[in-house]
Amino acid sequence: MKFWFLLTVALASILMLFHLHVINRHTREAFPFSTSRDTWSHDLTSHRSRRTAPPLQSGTNSVTWREEQSKGDQETHHVFFLKVHKAASTTVLGVMLRFALSRQLAVMLPKRGNVLAEDTKFFHQNVLRLPEGRSHYDMLCNHLVFEERLIRRTFLHPDAKFLAIVRHPFDQFISAFQYYRKVYSVPYLTKIPGRNPIATYLKNPDKWEPINPLTSYTNNRMSFDFGMKHRYVSNETYVDKYVEYLENTFDLVLVVEMFDESMILMKRLLGWRLQDILYIKSNRMHDKQEYFFTNQDRKIHRKLRTADYTLYNHFYKVLRMKISAAGPGFFEEVMHFRNIQQNVEKFCLEPKKSLSLFVNSSSWNEAFHVSYLDCVLFKMEEVELVDVARRKLGPLDGWPELSSFNALFF
């Protein structure tokens, strides 16, 4: 009798230890940070070195930021950009890859296609290996789900700057719904009926959402891209703490609704030149259908996707604070950038090989030219540009077959 009693106690102890192990494992998986709101784990914060770019002075006739920046820090070549679904991230990826091509940087690229991974599992199997003689990748900007420990410790230089982007959740939702329904014919979206299928979806989202949340583009997708665990996105405490962790991890989170302001802040943070951040917007659907949405539709979406709204509202406020601290010359620089952007877009509508656009020097830029080849790169589709980067920046034996269009570059 005593034997059976002791055996029962031993089995109960083993089961309890196993249960605690499972709980701890899930807790670590959900929270990549300390459980105290005011204490963050050392390995995630020891690398941080907050540095604000010196403000540009209004009315100067020299390139103030470049002069001050050149005294200490050089332009940043080590960058991670989190590419978030349907948040102008393809436009930013284009900026990153063009910069990398101009500097011959080692970019972490997918072996095929333009996506590293749609989830956190096994994306390393799709990574084009480093060129010979390189110890780390300089830049990572293709799509994956954020996992800091893996990215920082395995692939990038320890001093890499971390950037991301967010968009107003309702606009991001509408854009994703139409894009993945029309361009990619994603099954769960194409099945939704009605003259306004988005309104149909909002009446009963659970009816239409796929079983696997990582195959959805309409369910707090921005939060999932940032690495939030889907089973905790309804937990307000978890979401708040995770957003706080993200603020301590990312050097700058761009906001689509203040895109040019975001780009100037990025330029200052990275010490890049104005010509390095020029762009032509990518992935725009010119034939998308316009739908009318009521305030009630928006309220329903806000209630359903609270994690995305918490994420967006937080980094919108953070960006506003960064802009307020940027100095009196900031908005002048933004307006100057927009004027050059407009001229570049006009020039690139019908560029000619024999002509180039000359941009005069100013307080914010050195003089430079925009060539026919620049226009080709600005207007290149994401898949095509990633192919060019693979060929120019990848290992020699990793070169894929390229379309004849890319013969322009070789």
From TrEMBL:
Q: How does it sit in the membrane?
A: Single-pass type II membrane protein
For this entry, the protein name equals Sulfotransferase domain-containing protein
Signal peptide boundaries = 1-20
Cross-referenced InterPro entries:
Gal-3-0_sulfotransfrase, P-loop_NTPase
Kindly indicate whether the keyword Membrane belongs to this entry: yes
- Alphabetic keyword roster: Glycoprotein, Golgi apparatus, Membrane, Signal, Signal-anchor, Transferase, Transmembrane, Transmembrane helix
Regions of biased composition (Polar residues) lie at: 55-64
- Entry's family note: Belongs to the galactose-3-O-sulfotransferase family.
List the Pfam families hit by this protein, alphabetically.
Gal-3-0_sulfotr (PF06990)
UniProt record, GO biological process: glycolipid biosynthetic process
Q: What is the lineage of its organism?
A: Eukaryota, Metazoa, Spiralia, Lophotrochozoa, Mollusca
Q: Which cellular component terms (GO) are annotated to the entry? A: Golgi membrane
Give me the ranges of the annotated region Disordered: 39-68
Entry GO MF terms: galactosylceramide sulfotransferase activity
Task: Report the locations given in the UniProt record.
Answer: Golgi apparatus membrane
Q: Which domain of life is it from?
A: Eukaryota
